[in-house]
């Protein structure tokens, strides 16, 4: 049939669509004012439209009407658990009800897992985070706790020694745990037994 009206017919209102007001979708023409979701009447554009045969929907309504059904489906499409689907001609409440949610969480949150995995400083017992961690004696320490247990001197990898889970500078370690006698640990004479 010849089109004497000058333009294509709108897919929504069936009136003539002139070039200046035309939006094309799925091989059909629409007025800008008629380019609306068939379910919720929300204005559409090229990024929000989802076409099904001759019908156009927003992505949310399209997901509700044509997406997968069942427990756990529809959330990505914006479907709320309170949505009955009546405005789409659907009955989403069919079938068995959703299982009751357990009172205690089965999986801890990512944050809780991350907090549980944080190392503890042997000196102060507080959490040691990556920005402040120094390894010594196979354990993580705070920079401020990485000191000799006897003299309190700040330690580095070149002067640290560990014994029984505690850190010492080399001088204190030698005095307290090293060999005894002349030339060892700062002693200058051998103690004589009387």
TrEMBL record:
A GO cellular component annotated for this chain's UniProt record is: nucleus
What domain of life is recorded for the organism? Eukaryota
The protein's GO terms of the molecular function aspect are:
actinin binding; metal ion binding; structural constituent of muscle
Q: Which GO terms describe its biological process?
A: cardiac muscle contraction; muscle tissue development; sarcomere organization
Q: Which SMART domains match?
A: LIM
Q: Which SUPFAM superfamilies match?
A: Glucocorticoid receptor-like (DNA-binding domain)
InterPro entries recorded = Znf_LIM
Pfam families linked = LIM
Q: Which Gene3D superfamilies match?
A: Cysteine Rich Protein
Domain LIM zinc-binding per the UniProt entry, residue ranges: 8-68, 119-179
Task: For this UniProt record, give its keywords in alphabetical order, as a comma-separated list.
Answer: LIM domain, Metal-binding, Nucleus, Repeat, Zinc
What is the protein's given name? CSRP3 protein
Report the PANTHER family cross-referenced here: CYSTEINE AND GLYCINE-RICH PROTEIN 3, RHO-GTPASE-ACTIVATING PROTEIN LRG1
């Amino acid at each position: 049939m010849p089109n004497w009206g000058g333009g294509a017919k709108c897919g929504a209102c069936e009136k003539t669509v002139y070039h200046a007001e035309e939006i094309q979708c799925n091989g059909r023409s629409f007025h800008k004012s008629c380019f609306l979701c068939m379910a919720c009447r929300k204005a559409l554009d090229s990024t929000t439209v989802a076409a099904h045969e001759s019908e156009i929907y927003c992505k949310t309504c399209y997901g509700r009407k044509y997406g997968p059904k069942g427990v756990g489906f529809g959330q990505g499409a914006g479907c709320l658990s309170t949505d009955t689907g009546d405005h789409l001609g659907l009955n989403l409440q069919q079938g068995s009800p959703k299982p009751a949610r357990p009172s205690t969480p089965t999986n801890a949150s990512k944050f809780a897992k991350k907090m549980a995995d944080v190392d503890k400083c042997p000196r102060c017992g507080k959490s040691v985070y990556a920005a402040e961690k120094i390894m010594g004696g196979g354990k993580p320490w705070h920079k401020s706790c990485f000191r000799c247990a006897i003299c309190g001197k700040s330690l580095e990898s070149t002067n640290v020694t560990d014994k029984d889970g505690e850190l010492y500078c080399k001088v204190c370690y030698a005095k307290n745990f090293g060999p005894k006698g002349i030339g060892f640990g700062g002693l200058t004479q051998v103690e004589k037994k009387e």
